Amino acid sequence: MDGSSGTALRAQQTEMMTRLRKTFLSGKTKPLAWRKEQLRSLGSAVAANEAKIVEALRSDLGKPIEEALLAEVDYLTKECALAEKKCAAWSKPRKVGTPLPNMPARSMRVPEPLGVALIIGAWNYPLQEVFGPLAGAIAAGNCAVLKPSELAPAASDLLAEITKSALDNEAFDSVLGGVAETSALLEQKFDKIFYTGGAAVGRIVMSAAAQHLTPVTLELGGKSPAIVAADANLDVTARRLIWGAFMNGGQLCVRPDYCMVEESVYEPFLAKLQEVASSFYGEDMQQSPHFARIVNDRHFERVARLVDSGEVVVGGQMDRADKFIAPTILRDVIPDAPAMQEEIFGPVLPTFPVKSLDDAVHFINERDKPLAMYVFTNSESTGDKFIAETSAGTLMVNDCVVFQTNHHLPFGGVGESGMGGFHGRYTFDAFSHLKSVMKRPFWGDVSLRYPPYTEKGRELLRKIMM
Ligand code: NAD
Questions:
Q1: Residue 301 resides in a domain
Q2: Percent of the chain clearing pLDDT 90 (strictly above)
Q3: 294 and 313 together in one domain
Q4: Same domain, 308 and 401
Q5: How many domains are there within the chain?
Q6: Which of 318, 411, 451, 464 has the most Cβ atoms closer than 10 angstroms to its Cβ?
Q7: Does 219 qualify as catalytic in the annotation?
Q8: In the beta sheet, which residues pair with residue 422?
Q9: pLDDT band of 447, cuts 50, 70, 90
């Protein structure tokens, strides 16, 4: 971007920030009635635009209609309805205890909105990743700037349209564009940045936030492992694993990225995976209406290169013009293979046998902490072993991905896979400051605490304070 267009962009964004900050400071976003009305309007607009949303996601990602309806339209309408129903309860002061030395007093944590938030989304679930956090930001009483991903242009345009028509434009605005627009935005002072995307840009976002001491939530990705123990139900495991690994064309942050199988069941499990893949997608997978496409040529080339990382036992076919890479399963993939060096974020699933569950634990602990981990086993103690001995944003036993629909479980990473959690009340909290408040009466004023201090008084005070 040349100097003059950069200056114009900054001026435009500064004007937007001034407008949003003025609205926040006016107190307009604080009344619960206003928050509820905005949430109702956003939820209704998403529902009313269902057909347009399905079409935009088909155009950007070839997303199957069922996946668009469940993971974007229904997810968002439910998230808005929940936030509308619960925001009054979430906003109430949360009582905490008061130790004896502080008595008489009442102590509580009072949620207050942070101010003007920036929500940056990725392209794989382009509406969910921006409007989802927004529901919590609205419920908590914030203003917000929305920055959807330029890699999903049809969905981003629709998001801007819905923002304009359904929300209070004095409090919410969207910015379209790519690196230049986002970089300029990051120079502005926000009160919260909620970022979804890869770790490399996560670092850029966090460095920019540091300039203003802005708190961040980083929803990143990484290599989420699946472990299949010898005592697992192989039929159900194969179905659940293939469904999770190839949903949205494998472009899902919590997809099982690779699969370790106890060696005694490795061959029978591979046979099950082959059976299940052909029952899901048919013999000619490219004709299946139940399988998405790669988002763009750059990602197509990146994922296509990873297919050579092992022997293909399922899929392997590709068609550049259609951005199609078949659901592909590789066997005996070694740790040094390209598919094991980066998050795949596409329809390739490397598998390999492990001699023992301890070896699997060791393999996981030698690498970055994953966003999700999936353990398939019939034994409670095997699940508990991975819960106790490994670290991940979320650990799920005997299934994958579906934990995301439980709004009681905050979703987020740890270490390289991110920081902070969200969904339901946890999104509300991510956009709130829980102000510590202590209220005391005037009675019970102990004179010991005031000068002139005495030795006897000091001893008594130390006893009381302990
Ligand atoms: P992306 O390329 O769409 O980038 C994300 C956002 O960052 C976009 O809005 C983009 O405009 C902006 N951006 C890109 N480059 C930038 C730069 N140099 N400076 C400032 N802003 C910039 O998305 P991506 O990174 O390809 O997303 C894929 C990653 O996101 C994967 O690692 C995936 O696991 C992760 N992800 C995580 C979650 C989660 O909830 N944890 C959800 C979806 C995706």
A1: yes
A2: 93
A3: yes
A4: yes
A5: 2
A6: 411
A7: yes
A8: 411
A9: confident
Among protein residues, the one with the nearest Cα to ligand 1's atom 10 is 149
Is there a domain that residue 444 lies in?
Answer: no
Segments in 223-321 forming alpha helices (H) = 234-246, 266-281, 297-306
Measured from the CA of 148, which atom of ligand 1 is nearest?
9
Q: Please give the order of strands across the beta sheet that includes 106-113.
A: 94-96, 106-113, 432-439
- Tallying the residues shown for the chain, one arrives at 466
CB atoms within 10 A of CB 373: 24
CA of 196 to the centre of ligand 1 (A): 6
Task: Write the residue with the smallest CA distance to atom 41 of ligand 1.
Answer: 219
Q: Is the dihedral of CA 237, 240, 244, 249 positive or negative?
A: positive
Share of the chain above pLDDT 70, in %: 99
pLDDT, tens only, 340-356: 999 999 999 999 999 99
* 220 Cα–ligand 1 center, Å: 8
- Whether residue 204 is contained in a domain is answered as yes
Measured between alpha carbons, how far is 461 from 455 in angstroms, rounded to an integer?
10
Give the amino acid at 293. R
183 Cα nearest atom in ligand 1: 20
- In terms of Cβ atoms closer than 10 Å to its own Cβ (0-12, 13-18, 19+), residue 154 is middle
Query: What pLDDT shows up at residue 349?
Result: 98
Mutate to test the pocket of ligand 1, among 75, 130, 201 (most ligand atoms within 8 A of CB): 201
Q: Which of 147, 159, 174, 182 to mutate to test the pocket of ligand 1 (most atoms within 8 A of CB)?
A: 182
Q: Which domain holds residue 189?
A: 3-220+418-435
Q: Check 143, 253, 259, 400 and give the catalytic one.
A: 253
Cα(122) to centroid(ligand 1), Å: 4
Element (H, E) at 143: strand 143-147
Q: Are residues 365 and 386 in the same domain?
A: yes
**Predicted pLDDT at 340:** 97
Pocket of ligand 1 (CB under 6 A): 120-124, 129, 147, 149-151, 178-179, 182-183, 196-198, 201, 204, 219-221, 253, 343, 345, 371, 418
Within 8 A by CB and 6+ apart from 348, the residues are 250, 303, 306, 307, 309, 325, 328, 330, 339
pLDDT by residue (tens digit) across 16-71? 999 999 999 999 999 999 999 999 999 999 999 999 999 999 999 999 999 899 99
Q: Are residues 41 and 159 in the same domain?
A: yes
Position in ligand 1 atom list of the atom nearest CA 121: 9
pLDDT at 1: 59
Choose the weakest-confidence range: 156-165, 209-218, 359-368, 447-456: 447-456
Residue 423 backbone zone (phi > 0: left; psi -120 to 50: alpha; other: beta): left
Q: What does the radius of gyration of the chain's CA atoms come to, in whole angstroms?
A: 25
